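Handout, section B. The chain below has 1179 residues.
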Amino acid sequence: MSYYIIQANVHTTELLSVIISYSLYVIFPYHLIQGPSTDNAFSGQAELSELDRYRAKEHQDDPAALEDTPEDTGFTVKIQAPGSEPTDFQVSPLAMVQEIKQVLMDREETCHRTCFSLQLDGNTLDNFAHLRSVAGLQEGSLLRIVEDSYTIREVRIHLRHIRDLLKSLDPTDAYNGVEGSSLSFLRFFTEEHTEDSGKVKKKGEELKHFSCSPPEYILPGTKECFLAPLQPQTEKLKPTECLKVLATSSWNPPPGNRKMHGDLMYLNVVTMEDRHCSVTASTRGFYINQSTTYSFNPKPASPSVLSHSLVELLSQISPVFKKNFIALLKKRTSTHPFERIATPFQVFGWTAPALDHAMDCVRAEDTSSSHLGYEDHVPGQIRDWNEELQSTRELPRKTLTDRLLRDRAIFKVSDFVTTATRGAMAVIDGNVMPINPSEDPRNQMFIWNSIFFSLGFDVREHYQDLGGEAAAHAASTIDLNGVRAYSLVDADGLYVLGTVVVDYRGFRVTAQSIVPGILERGQEQSVVYGSIDFGKTVNSNEKYLKLLDKPSKQLRVQRHLVLNKDDTAVELCSSVECKGIVGNDGRHYILDLLFTFPLDLNFLPLEGEELKPECQQLGFPRQHPHRLACLRQELIEAFQEDNCIKAAASPLVNHSPNASPNSSSQDIGGTLDTAIQNTSPRESIPSSFRNSSFDIRFNPNIFSPGVRFPKESCKDIQEQKQLLKDAAAFLISSQIPALRIALCELITRCTKHLFRTYLLAVEPSALSASVSHFLNCFLSSSPDLPGTQQMDRLASRRRSRRRRSRGSVGGAVTAWASLTTSELWRTVQAEALEYYHYCLPCESVEQAVDKCGLQRITLLREISIKTGIQILIREYHFDAKHKPVFTEEDVLNIFPIVKHISPRASDGLYLLHCGQAKVQQGCLKEGCELISQALGLFTNVYGALHRDVCTCLRLLGRIYYILGDYSEALSHQQRAVLISERVLGIEHPNTIQEYKHLGLYCFAGGQAATALRLLYRARYLMLVVCGEDHPEMALLDSKIGLVLHGVMECDLALRFLESALALTSKYQGPGSLKVAQSHHLLAKVYESKGDFRSALRHEKERYMIYRNQVGEAHEKTRESSEYLKHLTNQAVILQRTMNMIYKNSSGANITPLKLTAPSRLWIVEQLNLVTGIVLIPLR
């Protein structure tokens, strides 16, 4: 029998029989914290509009283009290393030779080699050639690994690689937020518990060595949430030491006479046996020399041993190294590859254990060098970032293969983000010289590594009329959103700058690629489009108008006229602040895109202008700290769609007979060119829409100070003003009611604003003390005592007269140390009122906890993530009254908060949505095939670690689970969990969801113990992130209760199911169908215990809800009635048995009581219902 799979509506509570199509969301289907993610290039409506734009691309001439298989069909070659047998190797024609070498450097057999080339029939392959371009390379070809001569560059690469191998299982880099390392703890909950998922275990077989009871801090009702379990530690996860010291020697560089002998570099090595050796790195390899710490003797030691690899040399001189390195490689190989490879964007953790600082020659060289890691391996050393970013956009994109290579190149240049982040930190740390050193420090600008850096302050009162410093700070992010929007449009011939916004130590830094020639010309000579004096003088350009035509359609920007200073009309297709500059490279660039999206009039009081009544009734417009508040792109798309739906449904519209009912909103805009009649207007249609077409566009210069419009545009200007008012009302009346106030988010955002200002007044030597004092004021229950400066020992021993001479430094320290708890919370309340117009119901952290139900640990996590603070992972006693909760030693680091553009693979995204559409139609196999193809395209573009790859794996895991292939479901979902941990964070809301899915699949596959570990982990993470009082916790507790019921841990199951019932009743209402389901699950557990009185009580509640909601005749009501009869019968049998026992009579004629455990199939069915999956047979 075939099945059609749909998902129950997780939000609808009226009718259980009312269900909607199962939807595999690209963006996460559930959110622990409501609101769109700020680091998504697309979310919700914006992503769908991007798909519409993709379908309309000029290169989509062939509708079946995506169905053609790209030229990436893999084939097998043989690769032979020196002294070993050939091994088979699966390759893709699109891969480069360099990528094959990187894979070989990761394999256990060849990982110790870095300086080699690949040869085919004696010909050396070009490292940057694609395999499809290699003549003679085909199925079964033999590639030989040939050792090459070393150079200083190759020696450094070799040292870095050996260092990475030795540190491959060491989480230090992940804690320090470097080298693309990040944490993953999935192995801790699945290691040694992996079973053959294809076989169903006998009941109890898996659980005999596992206690089903979770730790006390995970049980429902526990008020204290511990921090230490966030990063579980075991002996098996500890790294294996192979060397004590590997460092560059002080004898470097080699003298001239030794260079003539091939010496490149000298190294110092201390083995685990405490043997001190001096190693020479030469052009031929590595060998031990006779030098000591104070005596230079570069001659080879006796016996003389030359090894091409440093690992081979160390294995010969140190038995412990050889033994431990082999064990390290085996341990490394046993880990999943996703745990080892670097993430494309660095993930910073807000907690870390106390770490020992070990010697690291690579880290030391990176610190002392002016280059950035691998940059000294690039010809020319300093990369021209702008040329790299723009040239990748110019790559061809006519065929699918072309677009794959183009998307791949664009994404690979995203290491611009890493470089810009490091440069911004160097600027704030004072390690970069400004290009205008004589000016005020707040006005200084910097150039470093071909990147331009500016600070987020109001330079020369540029933003004075828009809000001053508040506007200057917000402008950077708003401009980045504009750059993101134009980048997604991806119009030919129009270029935007690479842009990264970094918040670090209270400063906001904008990093941008440099337009060629802009630094050699004045701004007046550079700008050929737009204005540099706030709209007084406006330039236009026919070329720019043509280039901006396509983006203006997709971003809904109206082409309009403005007046120049001489009262001549100038045509624009953007805001006047948008500047067009033609670089020396001939490219047309656009800059200053902060007015890309329409203004939000709800936060822009204007003299003589009134908002619609629904806004005025709620107190709008309200004064905001700056005048740059704008509407999100997602809202504009929703506003457009809403207007199209209303207008299309209105009888006032003359519909085209050729219009398709299945057309999208943009298709409607393209096919219908009818206007709404002016007669008998209806209130359901916005007034600004009554005389317009379906294609809504906004004039970005409306209400811009200093901008004037021609008289002939007066009517259009009035309509544009009304359109902005309609959009503002749509936000208030249609979008905001769908959201809820996230009190924790609001408090921590206000606190972040204050922390930024607080940190600006702190000198670097007092960072730890000041941050710990701020956290004490924010989270501790200690009385209002001013902070005490805890100076280091060196400073504390200075004489008092020397302390008096410090004057200004002491004053700066006193300023931050004088902050008190009550003062901070008063300021937080004031900030919430001024910035968000919300009156906080709490005046202290105690009230936030007791009155509002928040957790200190959650507040600590949120403020740490938002500000970049990293704290020591230990248990903090927040209720301590007489000593500070946080000390200087608890503050380990301050990381940057990085905002940037994330390039997307358009073809993969399109295939992903096509696959979802097939799944919604019930075509699971076709949908699975399309999503698998999308996964291949995503992996080809991004690599393995990316959230889009995670999305595909999660969807494929769900499909395989529905199809009953639990082995494949587990395999895909395990990878989804790993990627989510590595890319998003170990306690990110998406990671929690992935853990819950994996727990479900494990139980269905017969791994009940592993399922419980995973679900317990998910519950703990939810406790840390949002606390127990959350609607998602009800679903998770229901799942845990069902699994515990399945293994007959009834008492534990009742605790979780009772918690689920309470939360469901609170958030869904006591009469909701979900509450009825919770009562039924409790009744089943009580039945298994033999407590029929309680079972009847809960099942009666279920029956009453069904009868009231769907009536007596509904099958669910009848099912509950039958179950009530069954329970009553069982209760009667039990009572008769008890009566016979009391009378000491024979019970031979009494029907035996049946107390059986629920079947695994029933538990899985109930888990599916809780998850939202319903299987309906097709007839």
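Note. The CA atoms of residues 443 and 459 lie 5 Å apart. Compare this with the example in section A.
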